[in-house]
Amino acid sequence: MALTRIDLVRYAYAHRGLWGEGVPENSVPAFRAASVAGLGCELDVRMTRDGELIVFHDATLERMCNSPKAVAEINFVELRGLRLPDGSRIPTLREALEAMAGLPTLVEVKIDPPNRRILPLIIEYMNQSPAPATLMSFDEPSVWRMTTLMPERQIGQLIEPLSDLGPEGVAQKAKRARDFDCAYIAPHCSSLAAARDPGPLITWTVRTERDLSIARRYGAAPIFEGLDPALAIPGGTPI
Length: 239
Description:
Elements: E1 13-15, H1 28-36, E2 40-47, E3 53-55, H2 62-65, H3 76-79, H4 93-99, E4 105-109, H5 118-128, E5 133-137, H6 140-149, E6 155-159, H7 162-179, E7 184-187, H8 192-195, E8 202-206, H9 209-217, E9 221-224, H10 229-232
Parallel strand pairs: 1-2, 1-9, 2-4, 4-5, 5-6, 6-7, 8-9
Antiparallel strand pairs: 2-3
């Protein structure tokens, strides 16, 4: 299946959708709001115990659904009985991509090593999907596997904050990502300088105008939250 390559730095990406008061993160309403605004989005994918790909950030359901259970330990039918703070359901990956209505989506594959059981499922799903979506992860073995088995899909390497890895650790991780033939790297905004990478670059999580200025200095597309989208969009209001 031939896929259209996404011009990654053309877009700003709403972090977990365009969420805010009354609209929870990683929800269908948040993804619809992003698409209506002409934004790309970033979202998080996990797998239920019985193998359903769902969009949810945390390993447990405590913060968003007031349940102590782990996503990996709950079956999909039980998970569908839970509700996000606005009363909506936790979306499947398919529902989230449909809500984005053809706008680009950065899919972070949540890996909790050594459990990488999600990889065969998401590789199979995305190899059949025409959605304009990339996959990315912090987990290097997973990124290597996705670049190997999904040659037509743009795969990215997430890189931790500078305080976690140090300048040399950031630079080495960026170099390994290029050696993996990653289509892009996605450093934390504090790590952009240390990555020493010509791009394409995406950076996270841009929450202030100062963060946005740093992103623009390095030509990195922002994954943003809490900012006016008109500021975040490339070519938008100068900072």
